Amino acid sequence: MRTTTAAVVPERGAAYALTELRIDDPRPDEVLVRIRAAGVCATDRSVQHGHIPVPLPAVLGHEGAGVVEAVGSGVTGVVPGDHVVLSSAFCGKCDRCMSGRAALCRDAARLSLCGTRDDGSRTLHRVGEDGPADDISCCFVGQSSFATYALAREVNVVRVPKEVPLELAAPTGCGFMTGSSAVLDMLRPHPGSSLAVFGCGSLGLAALLAAKASGCATLVAVDVLDSRLELARELGATHVVNGRDDDAVAAVRDLTGGGADYAVEAAGVPALGAQAVACTHTLGRVQLQGAPPRGSKLELDWSLVSAGRRVGGGSMGGGVPAVAVPRLLDLYLAGRFPLERLVTTYPFEDINRAAEDSASGRALKPVLLMP
Question: How far apart are the C-alpha atoms of 148 and 64, rounded to whole Å?
């Protein structure tokens, strides 16, 4: 057992506090990773402010990347020194996991949010305290990577090429995978087709880049910030629409000759979800990937769906980490997915500033650099 510096959320709405904790040695199926970078995601903010139920105090973070420090006796897929990305929690044993649909694992929600290992034990402990006195929730989305060390099960670890900077690899475990997989795994647009993205944050721009890599001929980016629309154009959008100034649905339908073939909602705004559906033609396919607060309602004209449109969603964009992460990094190494354009780095001790910049939109994808 060793010590780790972790960012602890002590109570609902509180700032992160860097705290020295003890971390377990890896069990037979676990991998101990020295975290070198971790992305900051809207899901972390939702837990911090009580919108997603996780027992507090807790160590959050679910876009970790680093170097394998030690492995359990049963681990065969990685060795110390390997570079890895930590991704979503899934059991690896249920019918969905076994059929290649790990993003829809039957046990994913409990494994991600319960604050302990599957058997109720904890991986993180307060220094000088043992057993029942421990109160730190861990294993957040299978990792709790806002720390200098993290434990993850082998099934949730993906080995990545060492030539990829870890600060760019880290967000491929969640945000970038979600946006790209929504396109590559769920929508699967055909070359020459049209696709609209509503919301040009990191998730939406990842979807845009995936659509470009798929050969879409018409790519329409919709946002209310001109700076993000300009970046979308630089990354491959053929048209941009400021939804604050223009009727986005009418604009997209006009630009695509009567309606887009595909659309992605990537901002978590229910009104944009309805617009994403309405902007497609009658055989259009729509992926809702934003994450609004629980209980949010999507209001649609019934006839939009009954006419033939298909509307879906899917955790992690339906992507399987072992497939989606290497695919993204192959595209990056080929110069087709410029991850560096989406990332802003922060020292670990500036985690609260990074979280604020994520919430305000000042940074598309903040990534923490661990010492």
Answer: 10
d(CA 263, CA 183): 9
| Rg (alpha carbons) of the chain, rounded to whole number | 20
Q: What are the structure tokens assigned to 262, written together?
A: 């595909």
Question: Which residue ranges make up each domain of the chain?
Answer: 2-159+338-369, 178-314
- The 10s digit of each residue's pLDDT in 278-327 is 999 999 999 999 988 878 999 999 999 999 999 999 888 999 999 999 99
Which DSSP symbol is given to 187?
I
- pLDDT by residue (tens digit) across 73-125? 999 999 999 999 999 898 888 999 998 888 889 999 899 999 999 999 999 99
Instruction: Please say whether the beta carbons of 214 and 242 come within 8 A.
Output: no
DSSP 345: E
Per residue in 192-203, pLDDT (tens digit) is 999 999 999 999
Query: Architecture of 178-314 per CATH?
Result: 3-Layer(aba) Sandwich (3.40)
Which residue reads 């970046």 in tokens?
231
Q: What is the pLDDT of residues 201-229, one digit of tens each?
A: 999 999 999 999 999 999 999 999 999 99
Question: What is the enclosing helix (H) or strand (E) of 248?
Answer: helix 248-255
Separation CA 206–CA 185 (nearest Å) = 13
**Cα–Cα distance for residue pair 344/339, rounded to 1 Å:** 10
287, 185 in Cβ contact below 8 A?
Answer: no
Question: How high is the pLDDT of residue 129?
Answer: 56
Task: With cut-offs at 50, 70 and 90, classify the pLDDT of residue 133.
Answer: low
Residue type, 14: A
Q: Is the fold of 2-159+338-369 the same as that of 178-314?
A: no
Q: What CATH class has 2-159+338-369?
A: alpha beta
CB-based contact 192:260 (threshold 8 Å): no
- Report the SS3 class of residue 310: strand
Q: Which of 255, 317, 248, 244 is nearest to 278 (CA)?
A: 248
The residue type found at 161 is P
Using CA atoms, how far apart are residues 121 and 135, in angstroms rounded to an integer? 11
Please give the Cα distance from 180 to 249 (Å, whole number). Answer: 23
